[in-house]
Amino acid sequence: MRVRVKLTSSLALATGTFLVALACAPAAQPTPQSGGPQEVAQPKSGGVLNLVQTLGDPPSFDTHQESTGATTQSVHPSHDNLVRFDWFEPEKIVPDLAEKWDVSADGRTYTFVLRKGVKFHNGDPFTSADVQFTLDRVMNPPKGMVSPRRDQFSAITSIETPDDSTVKITVKRPNPSLLAALSQGVLPIYDKKWIEAKGNDIPKKEINGTGPFKMKEYIRGVSIESERNPDYWVKGRPYLGGVKSYYITDPNTAMAAFRTGQVVMHSLEPGSIKQIKDELSDRVGFYPSEGEGFTALIPNSKRKPWSEPKVREALNLVIDRPAFIQVLRSGEGTVGAYMKISGAWGLPQEELLKLPGYGKDKAKDIERAKQLMAEAGLGAGMDVVILTRKLQSYIDTAVLFQDQLKKIGLNGTVKSYETSEAYDLIRKADYDLISWGFGYSLEDPDAVYGEFVVCNAPRNWGYACTPEVDALFEKQSQELDIAKRQALVREMERKAITSNAMILTHRSIGTTALYNYVKGYKPHAATRNNQRFVEVWLDR
C-alpha cells in the first residue's frame, strides 16, 4: 500500500419473516450470482472503475466508527462482511465470510460456519477470533472511539468461538433484526492480530481487509485507488483491475466528469435528470429510488434555550417542509420521517400530514410558533449559529433553514466546516443548531432508532430523551409478529417525531445514472451496502 498525502488539491420486511426463512441458509458457491442480471456477453477482466465521491475526504478509514458515506465508498472495496445483502436482490441476505449459518428453535442462538483459507491483505489468516473481536469492538468500543451502530447489537449476551471456523452468538431475547444488522456494509470484519499489534487507531489510517481490492494510493483531496486482490477467496473475482474514486465536491465539476465519461456512475440532482437523459439516454441507464436517509435541523438540548420543549416545538412548527422538497429537490422527495413512507415500517403520508408542523396551514403554525417563543421568554428573538458541512448541498440546506427561522425571530449565521472538523464539534456538543443530511445502511427500526433516536443513541446529536420512545423501541425490537411489530414501530414514529429532538424536513428521491458498459452492478437504495464491485466488469 502506498499513501501519499497532498496538502493542496483541487428492508422493508427483510428483518421479519424473511430472515426466519433464511435461518438455515446453505453454503453459497464461491461465485454467488443469485438474482443477477443475465449478461449476454462473457465477462471481461481488467480495467479500472472510475467513480466520483462528492462528500470529500473521509474523516478516517475506520468504517466502524465513522458515519459518513465518504468513508464507506473509500474503503468498502477492500472489505467483506460475515453475511451481506445480495448484490442484485437488496432485500436478500446471503453468506459472505460465513459460508452458512443456523438459528436455534428458540431464536436465541446463531451459529456461523466460516470459510477456510481466507486471508487479510497483510497475509494474516481470517478466523473466528476476528469476528468476535470485530463485534466486541462495535458493541464495546475502546476509550475515545464512537460506535454509531453499537446499540443495534444490544441484545447479544455472548460470542463464543469453539474453533477457528465457528462463531456462536447468543442473544438475550429473539432479535429479528440481527442478521440484517450484520449485513450492513459499514460493519466489515477487521483483523484482530493487526489491530492489537498496531493499536486501535490503525484502521483510521490504513486499510486491511479480506475484500476483492487492496488499497493502492490515497491522495488527500484528490482520489483514492485500490487494485485487484489476486488472492481473493472468490475464485475468478474480481473482474476489474481496480477501483478509483475521485473526490469532487463541486456539483458542476462532478457533473462534468460524468457527462464526459471520466467517471461512470453519478447520483443525479433532480434538476439535472432531464438534461442527462436528453444527452446520454442511449449510453446511460437510470435507477430512481427513495434514499435511505433524511434531512434535519438538530437543536442542542444540552444548551438553553433548546432544552426547553416549547422552543423545539416552535422550530418544528415554523419549518415549511414542502419548500425544502421544492427548493432543494425540485419537487422530488417526501416529507421527513425516520422510516421511509414507501417501506414496511413508515407512517403513511396521510398520517404524517396530520402531525404538528406537517399540515398545509403554515400561517397558523407560524403564529403558534411565535406564541411558544414568547412563552419561553424569547419573543424578542435571538442570534443563533447553524453548523453544517462545507459541501454545497449542505450549505444550501442550512441557508434555507436560516431563512425560515427568521420568521420567529431567530437570526441565524451559517458556519460550514470540513467534515472532520464538523464531526469534532458535534462530538463535543459545541453548537446551537446543526443542519445535516443523514444516511444509513439499513431500513430497519432497530438500526435507525438505535443509531439516531433512543436516549443514548450514538447519533442522537440533539441529546433529547423521550422515555416512551425507548420503551416502544425495546418492545418492538423483540416482537416476531410482523403486523404487531409494524403497529409498535408506527406508534414509536409518532412519538419520536413529535418529541422534536430532530426537526425532520424531507427524504430525497434520487436517481443513480450508470453507463451501460458497466455490467454486473445494481444500485441499492442503501448505497453503502453495495460498493464492493466484486461482480462488476466493463464491456468495452
**Tally of extended strands?**
21
Summed up, the domain count is: 2
Radius of gyration computed on alpha carbons: 23 Å
Q: What is the SS-derived class? A: alpha+beta
Strand proportion, as a percent range, falls in 15-25%
N-C termini distance:
29 Å
The CATH top-level class label of the largest domain: Alpha Beta
Q: Largest sheet at a glance?
A: 8 strands, mixed
Dominant shape: globular
The helicity comes to 25-40%
Write a concise keyword list for the protein shown above.
Dipeptide-binding Protein, domain 3; 5-stranded mixed sheet; 540 residues; D-Maltodextrin-Binding Protein, domain 2; 29% helix; alpha+beta
Describe the protein.
This protein has helices spanning 17-21, 69-75, 128-139, 178-182, 192-198, 202-205, 251-259, 270-280, 309-318, 321-329, 349-352, 362-375, 392-405, 419-427, 445-452, 467-477, 482-499, and strands at residues 2-4, 48-53, 83-85, 93-95, 98-103, 109-114, 156-163, 166-171, 213-219, 223-228, 242-247, 265-268, 284-290, 293-299, 333-335, 382-389, 410-417, 433-439, 503-515, 518-519, 537-538. The protein is α+β, with helices and mostly antiparallel strands and 540 residues long. The strands form 5 sheets. Strands 12, 13, 14, 15, 16, 17, 18 and 19 form an 8-stranded mixed beta sheet that branches. Strands 1-9-10-11-2 form a 5-stranded mixed beta sheet, sandwiched between helices. It has a 4-stranded antiparallel beta sheet with strand order 5-6-8-7, with helices on one face. The longest helix is centred in the last third of the chain and has 18 residues, at 482-499.
